[in-house]
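=== RUN LOG ===
request id: a7f3
mode: sequence -> structure
chains: 1
length: 252
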Amino acid sequence: MKRVSVIRAVLNEAKISDALTSDYWRVRVINQTTSTQDELKNELVSNGDCVVTEFQSAGRGRLDRSFDSVASVALLFSFYVKPNRRSQLGWLPLISGMSVARTINEVTASHDYLTKWPNDVITESGKVAGILCEYYGEGIIVGIGINVSTTPEELPVATASSIYITSGIEIDRNVLIALLLKNFQDLFTEWNNGRDFRGAYRALSKTIGTEVSVILPADQVIQGMAIDVGADGELLLESGDRISVGDVVHLR
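=== RESULT ===
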């Protein structure tokens, strides 16, 4: 395979801050860490704190899976928020996924990026982004990893993809994170104020309307058609099953 040359701008704290449109966020750039989630846990964290890194040696996703990437090709960051709607926290991964999908569609002028319940962003060529939400203190740490300029030979697994692979566009990660934080803030604020996001989520979901296999925590497997999301963000199957926690596989 011929190696593709991609221009990769380094992360720059000042450039990100200049691109942000509000003072809600406080973004700190570090060159390397074990994981950005752990980085936030090691400091006195406040609502709106965000850490972004060029490389993390122990990045992880749901079910304690690793999220691997070579240095400087992915956007790897975590931020801390304190939701008001404590009874519906299942929406946090969904809102995060919506903000990622909307942002990438915006910068690529496409509709190719969709959510996979509960916390991935995918295209026809594979997974582009993963999200991990963790309780911490009185709030939630949202960790996001996006394959931005990753080339085919740099992909960690065959089921992964990147913005560059799917669009051919080279995105400045400094611009991407600033826009994504803005979009998340907008959605998060509306959700905190009581908005029902079920309709908006359906419009960005690849899972709804798809035959799925769901692996539950006890390794029980349920298969059926995903037809909607519930008021608390749970996945609804045609069989009547309501999935709050599970690993979803899209069946072709």
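=== NOTES ===
The CA atoms of residues 100 and 215 lie 25 Å apart.
The helical segments are 13-19, 36-41, 91-108, 163-167, 173-192, 198-204.
=== END ===
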